[in-house]
Protein 1
Amino acid sequence: MTTKITIDAKNKKLGRVATEAAVVLMGKDSPTFRKNKPADVKLEVINASKISLDEVKAKNTTHMTYSGYPGGEKILTSKELIAKKGYEALFINAIKGMLPTNKLRAVMLKNLTITE
């Protein structure tokens, strides 16, 4: 039985919402938590565009992607990332960094939906 959980991001900091989302996606808040099994939960983050984001952090925080080819490194600030890909990419990047780096990470991220 899948449980559906909603997190409202309005007037909250990005890191606080990402931490809460990562805990739910891993299943650490459930009494049936097991490290080797993904949690049976669907998570929805609403009001993503209404987060409390400081101007200084938006300009100074960088997000790097690498294609694997020489010269394929792209570095964007948070402000540029929001302008190019939207708030959803910012949230996915933050939550992905808080999940364990193993085979279950992609499975956990499939249970995440973000609405602006």
Protein 2
Amino acid sequence: MSDHTPLTVPVVLHAHGEGIPLPEFQTPGSSGVDLCAAITEPLRVDPGRIVLVPTGLSIALPVGFEFQVRARSGLALRHGIAVLNSPGTVDADYRGEIKVILANLGPEPFMITRGMRIAQMVLARVELFQWEPVTELPTSDRGDGGFGHTGR
């Protein structure tokens, strides 16, 4: 059981999102909240197509946080619906409407309807950093191995 106070996030509900509930945790153990489609007409997403879906929400996160937009596992498994830039980042200084880039990687057309839960959004801390230019990096066991080097 968590004993900390949840972060309060100011949110603006746009007119085209009227009647769609605010994203909420579906279970006590959920890590994220579901984003819903704030569209006026059903949206058909043919295989191989990419769409930008409005949510009707704009937010103001404090510096040091981001929202990560991710695919919903059920849509991904059953229909091949992916958040194309997953995880998409909603930065603390972004004040525009949150929109979700969805791609249909499945074999069949997919219909998005008003209020459908299309993605999930997870709050994450962001550590600010600064670069320190150097001429050499400390060594590590891995070195410069990458792109599948441990699978050999």
